[in-house]
Amino acid sequence: MKLTLAEALSSPPLNTCKIAAGFNGISNYITSVNSFDAPDVIHWLKEGDLVLTTGYVFKNEEASLIKLVQDLARRKCAGLGIKTNHLQRSLPSEMISIADEYSFPIFQIPDEQSIADLVLAVLRRILAVQSEETMEEEKEIEIYSLLRYIPKDVLENYYTHLLSPLIEYDQLNHSDFIKTLSVYLNSCLKPTETAHTLGIHRNTVHQRLPKIKELLGMDFNNGENNFKLQLALWSYQYSGQK
Predict the structure, then answer these.
(1) Alpha carbon distance 138, 189 (integer Å)
(2) Where is the Purine catabolism PurC-like domain (predicted)?
(3) Do residues 157 and 130 share a domain?
């Protein structure tokens, strides 16, 4: 699991910020957060960085601000948070157009909001998500340590009974429905997060899910079904199939 910009902006103190452009990129992942007031910082930024600035350095420098947005978008940064009190209270229209074109989120930070507090809040959220991810990995190791006590033929019969329609479909169509299902369940049934993990468009995930449900004859709204499928996938993976 990774922290998305939408999740970061949904909780205090970032929930006081307002998206101004690039809304289609709201599901961008945040891997780190940086604050700056110097235009040459772009060379230090990388994919997934959330960038926060008071905007003071761009006072009366509209062209530099527009170039910054282009550079951040091209580097696939997560988004830009900026105070507008130094920018006559509004963002340049060209800047908004570029952000929308690249699906690069820009949000306005309230004048009274401390940049340092925002940085700390985002870092805490990133660490919390990473901690959850570590716990998930440890959980998987524990499950595999339990599966080794189950005879191999029992495991094979179990996952074959549930997953054979997907396994056969993947083999015949060179598709990847098994992996899609695994990531979807591990992503808590979130199509957008599934798409990010698989490196595909979320519409592709939405197209695959109905077919996967049809092949399995199962509804993902049933918690017991999901547990059975997850156990079958663990058995499949433990048996060395993936």
Answers:
(1) 21
(2) 8-126
(3) no
